[in-house]
Amino acid sequence: MGEGSSVNAAKPAASKPAQRPLRLSIDVPLLLVVLTLLVFGLLMVYSASWDFSLSMNQSPNYLFFRQIRWAVVGVVLALAFALFDYHRLRRLLIPMMIGTLVLLLVVLWINDIRLGAARSILGGSVQPSELAKLSTIIYLAFWLSSRQEQLNNISFGLIPMGAILGVTGGLVLLQPDISAAATVFILGALLFFLAGGEWRQIIFVFVAAVLAGYIVVKLSATGNARLTSYLDGLRDPIQASYHVRRSLEAIVKGGWIGVGIGQAETKFTGLPVAPTDSIFAVITEETGLVGAAGVVMLYTLLLWRGIKVAWRAADQLGSLLAAGLTVWIFTEAMINMAVIVGLLPFAGNALPFISAGGSNMTASLGAIGLIMSVARYSSTKRAREGTPFDGVVDLRGRERRKARSRRVSTSTT
């Protein structure tokens, strides 16, 4: 007899639809680092600012609440930039640069002298030099990426870029804000190098910038005094500036683990501008060298993730944008901390995401939003083309490992 069909034969199991890994089109480690710095910064501003607020004839929480408002504005700006295709900034380049130069001229016209320099408008609330740094990076990223064939032609590459940096940096120098102008020139040279500029041109620009900077510092009463104080402090810390001596006092008091959040004394006994320029000294006194090292580590992680985004960018424009903005934030942080311990002459660089102040906060968070925009565009483009992008977070890692193990077992049978 022929074999009959079995009624109880096992039916093939219904195949489950393949689960696609959940992908986030942002760099999550970078986001976590920035959020950590932001929350920690608000905590430290709260600790360092109430006495400073009272000295301004304001309520004890005046600077803290103002910092929260600026942080909210910055976060909204970062979200807007992250969801915005950075390529569309091209149509805004000219208005953005013109607006920046106009604001720098307004600073010189108002001439609101604070701490020996005219750097702000609107009663000290806005510093256009911070906007100038951000605008210069964006403008140069677009400008350099569109001139690849002419980049090493002096007439079409070096000279026009020198004019861009010279006008912007020159207006900043007239305030005078030597550190901000130096930051503009350094970032311009970096972007020129990353875009493929020749070494000899970069060295020429660097030497010229150093000579020009030295001349400006020697002719500027403020710059000359800071340089002299810095050199004296290198020879003997006791001869350093009052600012550096009080900062070192705070660091010594903090020891390894600090005196505790809110327990620092130096911020009440004459540490200059504790909530802004000197906030790293407050951090070190209250959290010790361990806490200070943690802050340095967070900025190092930020640098790593930003460069990672630049490395994986879908085009050179995105790479230049992400690299320039990341290095700018990292440089600002390193200069601020190096000044506090006497390794660099005094400069007015803020500690990004931590120092009290709206201009640097909004500019830095806006820069993070643009970096996220580069990461999002690159992730979307690679996903559309079907190419792997390991910077995208897979929240279902276990499912992915199971699928990989099934593929391996199938291929070996």
**Largest sheet, described in full?**
2 strands, antiparallel
How many beta-strand elements? 4
How much is the radius of gyration in Å?
A: 26 Å
Quick check: average pLDDT? 78
User: Secondary-structure element sequence?
Assistant: EHHHEEHHHHHHHHHEH
Give the distance, in angstroms, between the N- and C-terminal Cα atoms: 35 Å
Query: What form results from the Cα inertia axes?
Result: globular
Spatial strand arrangement across the major sheet: 1-4
Percent helix among the residues? Answer: 55-70%
Task: Provide a count of the helices.
Answer: 13
**How many domains is the backbone divided into?**
1
**Overall SS class:** mainly alpha
Percent of sequence in beta strands: under 5%
Weakly predicted, low-confidence segments: 1-22, 389-413
Summed up, what is this model?
The protein is mainly α. The protein has 13 helices and four strands.
Polypeptide structure, described:
This protein is mainly alpha-helical and 413 residues long. The chain has one domain (23-381). It contains 13 helices and four strands. A hairpin with a 2-residue loop joins β2 (113-114) and β3 (117-118).
Q: What is the element layout, followed by pairings?
A:
Blueprint: E1 23-24, H1 28-55, H2 62-82, H3 93-110, E2 113-114, E3 117-118, H4 128-145, H5 158-173, H6 178-194, H7 199-219, H8 221-235, H9 242-254, H10 279-311, H11 316-340, H12 358-385, E4 393-394, H13 397-412
Antiparallel strand pairs: 1-4, 2-3
